[in-house]
Amino acid sequence: MSRHAPLVVGLVSGSHVVNHAYLLLFAPAFPLLGAEFGVSVAALGLAVGVVNAVVTAGQLPLGYVSDSYSHTAVLVGSLAVGTLGAALAAVAPSYEALLGAAAVMGAGVAGHHPAHYPLISAAAPDAYRSRAYSVHGFAGALGLAVPFAAVPAAVALGYGWRAAFAAVAALGVCYTAVTVLAVRRVPRELARAGAEAREVEADDTGGTPGGRGRALVRRFRSYLRTVAGAPLVLLLTALWFVNSAAAWGVRTYAATVLDAGYGLEAGTASIVASAMLVVGAVVLLGGGYLGDRVGPVPLLYAGYGALVVFAGALASARLPLVAAVGVVLLLAATVDLSRPARATLTDLASERRDVGKNFALMTVGISLGGAVAPPFYGYVIETASVETAFLAIAATAAVALALSAFVARAAAE
Prior knowledge:
Elements: H1 5-23, H2 30-37, H3 41-68, H4 71-90, H5 95-109, H6 112-123, H7 129-156, H8 161-182, H9 188-191, H10 198-205, H11 209-228, H12 231-261, H13 266-294, H14 297-315, H15 321-336, H16 339-348, H17 355-383, H18 386-412
């Protein structure tokens, strides 16, 4: 293994914790935010959707910046802007201000995948690639659990949701400072892996702003042609989108199905949802190990097949409470099992110069799923029931299962 791989994987994994904490910052505080600002579950789902919509819009531009200039610069900038958004959320005086804070958080979170994945791809050798992605994914899963632990803890101590948001923002401040110091140890060949040399660009463009702009447009068109001729990349983008739609339904409303659907007290349901994300993180590590041993495709089938069964069982509303808690604890694991597999397949399908852009494209799929799913499932809960929402999640997982078969066929060609 490269001597720089532990530094790179550790650095981006810590950033994954922080950025994913921002992604789900609002979800465990839904009842408190609803009471504070007088808005519905669907409106709060929209706030989560705003974060993901802004993340979506920023993906390809930041993928280009990462591939063309510096992965580490995007890494640091992502942390700084996302932390500012979390701090603004902690002091938001109104629902509208909360939406503004969500947009700032999204602008920061948008940079983390275009920076993380190229760094891992450049530093990790082939024999450890799935495991490197699994460590990164494990950290991200822990990050998703952070708000579900912070909000109940702050409320139990009498401080409220604002203190919980502020604590998450303080974590971001500390880690951003650590990252600013640590990136100096990342070699240039990793920090700028795949970037075109500026001297060559200057020769091609004459070094003028207009020439550089035309060169950027040419490269963008060339990339679009490359993607259009790469069915595996397009299929993986679709799979990441459908996966994200199912995953965000699970993450956002797992506590709700236990509370509204099975009568579990709201605070306890939130703790179970947090534990669910931790279980998923542990299973994700196992998914990386298995991915290096048996290949990525079997993990796609296993994960999505299990989610169809578990989400459908919850939707039936016939499980005993203990069984429902047990199923919820395993829900995130069904999605997280295949995360290293999806990352490895995307890496293998990418040219070195396109790694950041391709993972940015995958994150467009992830973020679109995150933008659509929380308000959609929230609307289903408001107009029908939480059981109906989980039936929709099961159907979404079935679509992911079907897409996996097409991915497997394209990968074999």
